[in-house]
Amino acid sequence: MAEYQCDSCNYRFDNQKQPLRCPFCGKTGTVNPTPSAEQVMVEVNSDADEKRSYREELEKSRGQ
Questions:
Q1: What's the first-to-final CA gap in the chain, in angstroms?
Q2: Number of structural domains the chain divides into
Q3: Whole-prediction pTM
């Protein structure tokens, strides 16, 4: 079973498949899967790598 969250009211719930509307507020098109902890960490690490790369390029350009 997957966990979902409504972008409109932030209601979190479990469901077998992604619903078309939020069971709490009733809005359609606002329900998305909640990312797992592993997915969040991959995204955070990717952002950190990107910032590190940018910082290294900036330092190189300032040194020249």
A1: 55
A2: 1
A3: 0.60
